[in-house]
Amino acid sequence: MPNMLWLQGGACSGNTMSFLNAEEPSACDLVTDFGINVLWHPSLGLELGENLQKMLNGLVSGEIPLDIFVFEGSVVNAPNGTGQWNRFAGRAMKDWVSDLCKVAGYVVAVGDCATWGGIPATAPNPSDSQGLQFLKRSHGGYLGTGYTSKAGLPVINVPGCPAHPDWITQIVVAVATGRGGELTLDEFQRPKTFFTSFTQTGCTRNMHFAYKVSATEFGQRKGCLFYDLGCRGPMTHSPCNRILWNRQSSKTRAGMPCMGCTEPEFPFFDLAPGTVFKTQTVMGVPKDMPTGVDKSGYIKLTAAAKAASPRWAEEDIFVV
Amino acid sequence: MSDMMDAGLVTQTEPFPETEKEFAGLLNELRALDPDDLEGKMVVSGFVNHPYGPDEARCLECMYYLVHRQWCDLPELAVPVEANWWCRLWRI
């Protein structure tokens, strides 16, 4: 029975909430169907005070095997590298992280804060936050570039703000059932099975993207959100339109631009007012092109696509 | 609109709004106009009845242009336009 421990650093608990909403498999399935022993979790753990300290010390000493260490939230180093702004069970959380990562079979970073620092690490980063093995795009983070867990893998990054519930539980099940070695990770240590395709893959607005018809206001069901409303779906790696949220929908399907939350730079544009839901342009051309597309090709494609667009592309085809 | 431009209506084609703030500033100017003030909309948005700039940009490529309706779908403008026209709210 593999032991799993879930701790939370500088976080909003969003990934905990997400995890508890998982469906395929659910958090309960982890225990009942896959035999995972959830040693402790911020919302499910029973032990408190000395009992919790005793368990954590038992894990650090090796008395209790730690098969899967899941970490949510950033590693807080402030003030002055002590980490005392984020204390847990009698010491700085970052010290627990150091010790537990040394003995863990697998380490899974869940959410943007644990993967690359997320919003807490956005400049000026007052809490001196880092992700476990990245700080934004820079490899290293708190554990350093050379870190591998006892199973020989680096930190497995499951980003998102929050990560989709089923991304979390499916990765936990994979490592708990001995299939961790089958995981292939991309350059940011994200499982390729989830993070090779784009958010745009499967988006119901793809027809409007193809024919260059823009949504110009929130709530429109016609039009693509990329052209004017800041959608980052064409350059964000995630399966949000393949593995739907709540099994029902996705941001872009519901008319909400993708904010690129599975990429290391999130939040883009450093939360400057007026930049989040507005496509950034240079002389009217998007600053960030769909991945792999250059400016001249984009302009030619646009002219051809618009000239060839059918009449229905300008109409609302999702009639209630 | 075509008649007004043929008659020599002078519009503000420059400066091109390079930043989102400048773009939003033009939208605010348009919102302050009477919705029926067509000439005012044309002047503020810098309409011309031909392609414009080194790239010969046209309404045809603009994201707000609806080809079949020959219509500018930018809510602050919402006017009939020709594919070969241009204005400084052009975005692709």
Task: Name the strands of the widest sheet of chain A in spatial order.
Answer: 2-1-3-7-11
Percent helix of chain B: 25-40%
**Count of alpha/pi helices of chain B:** 3
Shape of chain B: globular
Give the low-confidence spans of chain B. none
List the total number of helices of chain A.
Answer: 9
The ordered H/E elements of chain A are EHHEHEEEEHEHEEEEHHHEEH
Describe this structure in words.
The complex is a heterodimer of chains A (320) and B (92). By secondary structure, chain A is of the alpha/beta class. Chain A folds into two domains: 3-194, 3-Layer(aba) Sandwich (Rossmann fold), CATH 3.40.50; 197-314, Cytochrome-c3 Hydrogenase, Chain A, domain 2 (Irregular). Chain A has helices at 14-20, 27-32, 49-61, 93-103, 112-116, 165-176, 192-195, 206-210, 295-308; strands spanning 3-8, 37-40, 68-72, 75-76, 87-88, 91-92, 106-110, 129-130, 134-135, 138-139, 156-158, 281-282, 285-286. In chain A, the strands form five sheets. Chain A has a five-stranded parallel beta sheet, sandwiched between helices. Chain A has a two-stranded antiparallel sheet with strand order 4-8. In chain A, helix 1 packs across helix 6 (165-176) and helix 3 (49-61) runs parallel beside helix 4 (93-103). Chain A is elongated and about 70 Å long. The model of chain A has no long low-confidence stretch (mean pLDDT 93). With 92 residues, chain B is mostly helical. Chain B has one domain (2-72). Chain B is built from three helices and two strands, in the order αααββ. In chain B, strands 1-2 form a two-stranded antiparallel ribbon. Chain A binds chain B through residues 212-214, 216-217, 227-228, 274-275, 278-286, 298-299, 302-303, 306-307, 309, 311, 314, and chain B through 16, 18, 20-21, 23-24, 55, 57, 60-69, 73-75, 90-92.
